[in-house]
Amino acid sequence: MPDDDTQDAARGDRPAAAQAEVPADPQGRNARANVKRAPRVSRRSAGHVRSGARMLSKEAQRILRKHRARIDAKVIAEIEATVAEIESLRAQRPDEDLAALEYQAEHLDELLHQHASFARKSALRDTIENIVIAVVVALGVRSCVYEPFKIPSGSMMPTLRAGDHIFVNKFAYGVQIPLTTRVVGEDWISGIKRGDVIVFRFPLDESDDFIKRVIGLPGDTIRVNADRRNISIKRAGSERFEPVAREKIEDTKCQAENSTQTIENCTLYRETLDEHTYEVRYRDDLRSNDPSFRTFEVPEGYLLVMGDNRNASHDSLAWTVSGDTVTAGGLLSRPDIRDLTAVENERLELHDDGDTIRSNDDGHHDEVRYLAERSDPTRDLTLEAWRAPPIDSRAIFESLAATYGATETVSFSGMIGKLEGADDRIAEYGAKLGEMRYAKHDATSELVFWAPTAEVVFRLHCGIKRCANKADLATRAAQVVKSFEANPDYDARELLSFEYGRTQTYPGRGQRDTRYLERRFGSEQGGVRIRAWRSPHESLAVLRDAALAEHGAGPLAPAMLEHYEVAPSEAGLAADLGPQAWVLEHDHGWTVVHADEDQQILAVLDCGPKRCKTQTDALALATTVASRFPVVAKDRDRLSELLGQADVGGLPEQPVVGNEIGYYWDHLTVVGVVLDDSHSVNIEVEIEPEGGLEAALEARKQDLRDPEPVDGLGPVAWYADTPNGHTFLFSVPETKMVVELACRPGLCPDRATARALADRAREKGQDPENYLQKSVSRPRPFVPRGNVKGRAEVIWWPTTRFWKKID
């Protein structure tokens, strides 16, 4: 039997104790009967042990009454002693020794098997008796209204367990005419509802019965992610998706499918769908990292169903068939659209709509919609993280704020205001932010802030459609701090893992040696130190101004002097090095800051009196470093050659200390994009249509507005300017194909462009090799309404769940 079908409940099960494995008997059956076994813990639930012991005791007494003369007296005595011991233990309920009771039951089962097997019920007789009992019970409840079924697997756990016997109300949704799929009387009863648990004939093999929960009704659109943890429904007639409500159950553990033992790597949720509230579970060890979603548009006359054991259930989301199929993408591909439309290709990416399933695919029909993805700066998001920078952190903070115009000093509480529904945990982390700098521009906003517990500076850039106000920006900053405190080693992608979009990131940790150089020669106060950046993603201007501000010079000097009581350095332009070179005199010698925008290199050279007696010496050494810029710019592996020991008069090189965390800069950019029908192409193809090509063309033509005949696009072709854009409808008789192509003005500003696409599609449609795929797995997710046998209503066995209503 398949994993997820149901089976007639009349099948009986051998008692739990009677199914126990009989141990080996190396000394003969009499020796085995008297062997002493060490105490052990019961492997079964208390209910299973008690039920099995009671049934074996009754069976033994029945056998002795009818067949005492055929059994050896010693065996009779031992059987009676074992029965007496079982009854004695049962009399102590509920405080009986379950392990001892289980042991005596197994011993009694072994004695009956060895010495009275002739009197025990055969499997056939046991089955027949259980069938008779089930039939009598079913007839006694409601003749011909309820049908018993047995659950064979755990696909509906925790609602239903393997081995549960249930009653199915066959008249709950009307009366099905025998030997047909026609249902009558459905109009005057409630009908199938979302959340109902139903039994139905499996669409891929109608000899099997399945049991699942109804998630989608005809006309609904269901959106489910690959992990099945996010389910949203757009009900028939509605314009928006609503997530299926659920809450995590913290105080209950998942149970194994074949026992009552709890298992790890499993999470329970309480889910509410319309009038039903029930429990579902997810196997965490089967979790998928695939972020994609699939969309199911439930057609008229069909249902979409899922199991409550969500990611361990063979249900609508998993049903497929294999066979030859037509693909509309074979008639018109992304390269075709790029070749034939007048868009700027570098600004566009094309997406098909292949993850939307609208029918049980028979392989004869397919539809693809290509959407042009256009960048939208108002939806951009960028996070920069400056970790243990070799330039003073305050200087980096001030330079970032100045470079991006973030001149307004704000606090988290001032930005968040009285935001209703704000997460208390987010507010808690936001309170740690302290000083922040903010700016609002036409299409974007900026926020520069610190990590509370480390010398890490962040810059957050957000488009106004993603961060509509200060509160949105502040909430994201608090989320970054929350993630950072959870793990300071997270890179920018993990700090902003909750943001979605097309991402572009440059983590600096793995590229540090080719982008950043720091070397020291001689003593810290009087020696030589170089810090250099090659093609820095960090921004040459930010680094340059921060390096000047570190010594109280440059445009940021006032802000730095406000925080540090240091005397400003004397700064002057080093004209011989270029327009962006400065020499600064201070107590420990000279510092030359040299930014070369052409080579994209910044060098900060500190030269003390052991090497540079005068400013002229410092400039000469800086000139030597600058002479090597072109070589380093071309070969990233030669960055360390900017300054060597021979250049500093043989001063010994010293290890770089005070930077144990390790400097690295990284960022994440989430590129804002717009996907809409204004820049789209839709192509629909059908091969061998029922009724023939002419009938299919005529039916589709009725949906066009003022169609006009077209020459040169096959024997019969039509054009119409419709709400969907320039539309062409034509046939390809050579391959018995009908094609409808619609191109919106964003991609096809005129009829000629759309006609070029139609010509390309017809040309490719004449060769089946272009569009016919062999042995393709196609989804078959929908259950025909006529396959539904009834609604599962109550569990009538086992006794521990007797007459429990199925939610």
Topology:
Blueprint (H helix, E strand, L loop, with lengths): L4 E4 L20 H5 L12 H22 L5 H18 L7 H18 L7 H19 L4 E5 L14 E5 L5 E2 L6 E2 L12 E5 L7 E8 L4 E5 L5 E4 L7 E2 L1 E4 L17 E8 L2 E8 L9 E5 L4 E5 L13 E7 L7 H7 L7 E4 L4 E2 L7 E11 L5 E7 L5 H11 L4 E3 L1 H5 L7 H7 L5 E5 L3 E7 L5 E8 L6 H17 L5 H4 L6 E4 L6 H4 E6 L6 E7 L5 H10 L7 H7 L6 E4 L7 E6 L2 E8 L4 E7 L7 H13 L1 H6 L18 E2 L9 E8 L1 E2 L5 E8 L5 H9 L6 E2 L7 E6 L2 E8 L4 E7 L7 H15 L2 H4 E8 L3 E2 L3 E10 L6 E2 L2
Parallel strand pairs: 14-18
Antiparallel strand pairs: 1-2, 1-7, 2-3, 3-42, 4-5, 6-7, 6-42, 7-15, 8-9, 8-14, 9-10, 11-12, 12-13, 15-41, 16-40, 17-19, 19-34, 19-35, 20-24, 20-33, 21-22, 22-23, 23-24, 25-33, 26-27, 26-32, 27-31, 28-29, 29-30, 30-31, 35-39, 36-37, 37-38, 38-39, 42-43
Helix pairs in contact: 2-3, 2-4, 3-4, 7-13, 9-10
Rounded to an integer in angstroms, the radius of gyration calculated over CA atoms is 39 Å
N-to-C span: 26 Å
- Hey, roughly how much beta strand do the residues contain? 25-35%
Structural class: alpha+beta
- Name the average pLDDT: 83
Biased composition (Basic residues): 34-47
GO molecular function: serine-type endopeptidase activity; signal peptidase activity
Domain Peptidase S26: 125-320
Protein name: Signal peptidase I
